[in-house]
Amino acid sequence: MSTTTETLYARTDAVLGSFAIRAMDPLTDAELLHGWVTHPKAAFWMMQDASLPDVEREYMKIAAAEHHDAYIGLHEGRPAFLMERYDPSRLELVGLYDAQPGDVGMHFLVAPSDTPLHGFTRAVITTVMAALFADPAVRRVVVEPDVDNKAVHALNEAVGFVPERPVQKPEKTALLSFCTREQFEAATGLMTGASI
């Protein structure tokens, strides 16, 4: 089992410095996550009214799930974002698209900050995508953000996502989008080391 200090992935951004990803601990990280997911800027995360015990329960459920994982992202060693990885053929998008071998689903949330850094969210999504593609089994990342979340659509496009179509989920109308390893590398100039 991973400890909360074990780095699972790391990269250095030429402008913003070091980024890393570690396992999430639903008990020790719950208070931190609660502040993030209930912040007004996290409206699309749909946990605005969650209590601390609600957040603990949600992330304990994810920690116990076979096809869903959550991670804490670090910037210069400090917690700065949340990353979730899931199997879209078993969660979130079951029956809504034709799953392919090597598909992985992703969610990410940047922590609120009083001192925003220019380009930070783009560096975060680039780190998240590079971490996913560090797994040679991953061929394509699948996302389903709210159709109204224009900011995340622009970020997705910046790292190589191509929108497919809107899909109706129980909680929202989502914009189904895909990004292959090759599309990510072309959009960012980063080589993931596992080209198909």
Structure in words:
By secondary structure, this protein is of the alpha+beta class. α1 packs across α2. The radius of gyration is 16 Å and the shape is globular.
Structural features:
alpha+beta; eight-stranded mixed beta sheet; 27% helix; 30% strand; globular
Short description:
The chain is α+β, with helices and mostly antiparallel strands and 196 residues long. 27% of the residues lie in helices and 30% in strands. An 8-stranded mixed sheet has the order 1-2-3-4-5-6-8-7, sandwiched between helices.
Shape: globular
C-alpha termini separation: 30 Å
Strand content: 25-35%
Mean pLDDT: 93
Order of helices and strands: EEHHEEEHEHEEH
Q: What profile does the largest beta sheet have?
A: 8 strands, mixed
Secondary structure: helix percent: 25-40%
Main β-sheet, spatial strand arrangement = 1-2-3-4-5-6-8-7
Structural class: alpha+beta
Would you report the number of β strands? 8
- The low-pLDDT segments are none
* Tally of helical runs: 5
Instruction: Tell me the Rg in angstroms.
Output: 16 Å
